[in-house]
Design brief:
This protein is of the alpha/beta class. Helix content is 38%, strand content 15%. Strand 19 (562-565), helix 22 (569-581) and strand 20 form a beta-alpha-beta unit. Helix 6 packs parallel to helix 7 (210-222) and helix 9 runs antiparallel to helix 10 (275-284).
Amino acid sequence: RNGPSSVSRYLVRKETFWPGSLTWPYPVRFETCYTFYHHQFCRHRLVAILTAGGKAVESSMLLETINSPRDLKKLNTPQLRALAGEIRKEILKTVSANGGHLAPSLGVVELTLALHSVFESPRDKIIWDVGHQSYAHKLVTGRREQFHTLRRSGGISGFPKRSESEHDAFDTGHASTSISAALGMAKARDLSGKKYSVVAVIGDGSMTGGMAFEALDHAGHDKTALIVVLNDNRMSIAPNVGAISNYLTKMRTDPTYNRAKADIEEALRRIPRIGSRLAHVLEKFKDGIKHLMVPGQFFEDLGFNYYGPIDGHDIEMMQSTLRSARIKGGPVLVHVVTQKGRGYSYAEDSPDKFHGGGPFDLDTGNRLGSPALTYTDVFSRCLCELAEKDPRIVAITAAMPEGTGLSRFAGRFPERFFDVGIAEEHAVTFAAGMAAQGFRPVVAIYSTFMQRAVDQVTLDVCLQNLPVVFALDRAGIAGDDGETHQGVFDFANFRSVPGLSILAPKDERELAQMLNASIAVTRGPVMIRYPRGKGPGTSIENIDGSLPWGKGDVLRRGNGPAVLAIGSTVEEAMKAARELEKEGLSLTVANARFVKPLDTALIDDLLASGFPLITVEDHLRQGGFGSAVLQYLADSGRLVRVQCLGLPDQFIPHGTIPELRARYGIDAGGIARAAREVMQAPVKPAGTVLPMARGSRGRKQ
């Protein structure tokens, strides 16, 4: 109670002391003395024994009694604080084993408890922007028993999902969407004559996205009853950038206006007979006062009633503020300040490193797994080497310098690095402007997030044939984050855009070659997509720009079906070939390299043997690489047997990358199975021409 240092001293001495902030009427003896920091559990397990008449009871029991948000309403404030500690402990245990978004979820535990103890979910709607901070929400909404399955195949998702719980009001996964969705729900409520609250919880990082301000503008103009909780932790994935971030910093550090306005109103209301009228007059002049007291008052100028900033770890204060916001009417913005990674010292010190990721050791904070180079590492190193030689190269990302590997570039070339915040559309057009003036921008964005900038890639870059290189990380199956983060739409989204070359490397060395060639050889826009994690381990030494543009490569010749693979599936095709060799079936395996321009000469070469063709890709079959091959064959009027392996017409759920590749038949086992199947079917002569006009619809084969 007397502060971290006093508590730590008691722990070291193993003394019994009286914790005045607790409701238990007996002394507490701490039997294990480990780090106790900022009143939260850190690094080690801390066990408190409650002694009553010689009987010991372990304190971590509250979470087991929480089966729905209704149960939170039975707890008093000290109990809610204790529950917050138990929730952090459960999150740490699960995420250290399964991986996931640790720092965001640790930072909003008290906020989650305040929201669910004030509002009536699922009647009231709580929408989590991005949703990566929803772990505490899942624990108190009936999913405690399933929490150990977080992000595992068949388990609960790491993001809100309406199909998973009635308490998940809206599916999220990408940033800046919550206010728009909440406003839509609030308008639907009003039109249907219902009564419930709608709350959008959005981080200050997501507020750097333009969509959030489009929604704020609409909500402020419309005056619809809506609560926006701004979770201000000074971070998105990396530290926030830009004028909006600077503005929020001012708001955090200068709450003068809100405190002064409240004090003045209270003093006036106490004046007998005329106090209420004077307070009403003050309300009419508040715009003048606010501009004197706090520069900007941006949110109130947009039409929102602003509350804050308040301590996002003070449950009682947040409860009081949220109750006031609920009865206020109209749009309200509640500004809470939280600490990302709270309760785990490693995450507090490095919240960007613990934003998301794989399993880690709780005692050391170190990630588990081998330290081999990832595709992201290779991209980062090669780009820095190229930038040393070419001062025209600039690097751009949208709030993800660490995740895309550009933090290395930022350290070496800070004046040529640009983090634009969560603003993919702006990032692309900003790059186009630089390219138009002679620079060579490299825009590094996850494949799933590049979907947000299709229009800008199409019209601002490709229409003008500007030399922008797009580096799409996490392409293909990205794994445990599930539907919203699988990078399986990029071929289909961009293959139809004129003038855009699309490449996919089979290994680390080829990624380096493609990056070199994209800058050294081409004059137009290029998109390189590469997978999450490690590759086969090929060397990246002595790379040059000699990659033959628009050409694939035959890796092995056989006397059986030909497999034309792209990207990460090439290695799986080679594994399948080695497996089938033992059965006496010899595959030809080719590495396509390019989705566009398509190497039609390579396709002709593979078909010349008369054996069936199998295409393989880590992408949806609709609109993907296999579709491009089929289109070429249809246009050339050929009747050949082609089997396209890829992902089905559905959103791909969460699971490990190997699990999902095996499920959808694009691993070595699936390719081998497909090869056996096509050899059992009759093969028609290669080169048979169908009697149809180019571009017309022929018979179904």
